[in-house]
Design brief:
By secondary structure, the chain is mainly alpha-helical. It has one domain. The protein has five helices and no strands.
């Protein structure tokens, strides 16, 4: 049980960290390597940050709510794989977005271990 809590919290941190950047548009510009003058893009990134916060909150409480575990884990897995695929398709193999893709790729390991542990009962 302790490993389930730890692994969910690791994934929660990966998803909550960018959510805090959503509070400060300058942080979003640095995190994603985008022009801070593009207000429309900053609005979209702030909205993305809120969604990450929600997913992170779900991951943080999932160890204590068995009915939430699989749906939140699947959502996190889809989110990470989708970002990696989109970044790759658009040639973002260097710079800030590549760094985020690497973090997501690394987070797939705890997600996989967590899926294995959950499947064992």
């Amino acid at each position: 049980m302790i490993w389930i809590v730890i692994l969910f919290w690791v994934l929660a941190l990966v998803h909550i960290a960018p959510a805090f950047a959503g509070i400060a548009p300058k942080s979003l510009s640095r995190l994603y390597g985008v022009d801070g003058a593009d207000k429309s893009l900053l609005v979209l990134l702030q909205h993305r940050a809120i969604l990450f916060g929600l997913l992170g909150a779900g991951l943080a409480i999932a160890p204590f709510m068995s009915g939430l575990r699989w749906p939140v884990l699947v959502a996190a897995f889809i989110s990470m794989v989708a970002f990696i695929a989109i970044a790759f398709v658009h040639g973002q193999t260097r710079g800030p977005l590549a760094r985020i893709a690497v973090i997501d790729a690394a987070a797939l390991l705890p997600a996989g271990i967590l899926a294995y542990l959950l499947s064992k009962g």
